[in-house]
## 1
Amino acid sequence: MKIYVVGLGPGGMDQMTGRAEAVLEESQVIAGYDVYIDLIRERFGHKKLLSTPMKKEVDRCHLALSEAVKGQTVSMVCSGDAGVYGMAGLMYEVAQEYEPVEIEVVPGITAACSGAAVLGAPLIHDFSVISLSDLLTPWERIEKRLDCAAEADFVICLYNPSSKKRHDYLQKACDIVMRHRGPDTVAGFVKNIGREGESGTVLTLAQLRDTAVDMFTTVYIGNSQTKNIGGKMVTPRGYRGV
């Protein structure tokens, strides 16, 4: 009995790792969020595909585990990396309710890395990744994390920067960061990473504050050393000063 928890990468099949592709081929059952199942349906439509909508993550794990205890090899798919805001942790938690099932996490390329490649090289030095979604984390805790990361001069990568209900959260986040960084700090964002319509923009923190983004956008705020080099966002590590 085995479950793979598989990171699909940023979007396109060509950005999935060879290991991820191999375990999906090996699996009889593939489970995941509706949107992610749709991404692989054309390639793996001959498998048994199970999906649940957003906010049904626990149910999704039960579906996968129920198939695994029948003796099926199952893959639970996630976008990006399964261990970064993915399903790997929850799968381990829910699996405690079942007889022992072997779980293997198969990594993928998370949005922080794939989006950084579009912008240039913003994550060359220490950085933090923070989700602005307050669905599972109180905003007060998110605000504290933003403030501490900004004060510590981390490059900051923001996941889930906005939604219909959270249209002003990126603006709030930029205001918090600007307690410690100037408005000319280099920033950037990437839309539709790895998918049709992918685009990257480098701008200032002040400009970012007044920019409309959506859930399919990943945002980057540079540290005090980050530069705009020919339209690319670059954070030096310090090699030239050694």
## 2
Amino acid sequence: MNQEFANVWKPTTLKESFQGKKFTLLWNPEAQSLRVESAEDGVSWAYSFWFAWYAFHPETEVYSTDSPTAD
């Protein structure tokens, strides 16, 4: 389980921005998954299992924000 969400047991919406582009993430504690709900034009993402992504892209930087809290 992702340590950032280890103590978040309710579905959670995170509204974030990176390099001036806004996006919204949804945390599903039942599935222990995080997905992109919406994003501004110019924001690209790919759904993947972290271990698989990291195997091919070990230089990937992990985005971090303040600890999430349930809505």
## 3
Amino acid sequence: MSHEHDARDPGPQLPRHEPVFNLPNVVLAMLLVMVAIQVALDSLLPRAAMLEIYLQTAFIPQRYDFGIAGQAGPYLWSPVTYSLLHGGYAHLALNSFWLAAFGAVVARRIGWIRFLVFWFLSAIASAALFLAFHWGDQSVMVGASGVVSALMGAAARFAFGDGGGFRRDKAHLNRRLSIVQSLRNRTVFGFLVVWFGINMLAAVGFSFGIADSAIAWEAHVGGFLFGFLTFSLFDPIEPH
């Protein structure tokens, strides 16, 4: 028996796999900006210039114990610019991992413009709570942890779905849960308990092996609450 082959038939196809690093452009861009800044600060600039950049762009509560006169630039921009700086490559790598995980889901959901606005406002919210606990002192805060925490809080409103499931490629299509519905969702509630538990341990001095710097748990909490409580303002998808 003969078998006729249609030239248009491509034959058996291998299964297609989603790329491991399939990140939205805005998330990839923010990662590249943070890496470029870290490389410049660590390797390309003289120490004096590096220290001056940290002084001008890191969030320092003592700055707000004085008037804006003479420090208008850092006074206004440091509540955002600190989120692009890091205390070293380990700090950057940790924040980059969580940014890729949660930022990608949120960015697919809300688009790049809303994502950048969300970044801007969540950085300010994170800095504000840190300032409330450290008013007037000389603490220096850098890092995207507060923004990443806000993205986690935002993702908790939709990414786990009604049944608690999570698919990285489909999570952004889930319906948004109300705050009450989120708290009633077992997976979301468990996530909240673990997340706040870890940060409360940091609040009482548990360092998680990070000996060279304190964990800015206040910024984490401020960011998370911002993302969790205000996400509906950024979400273009109306709940069904």
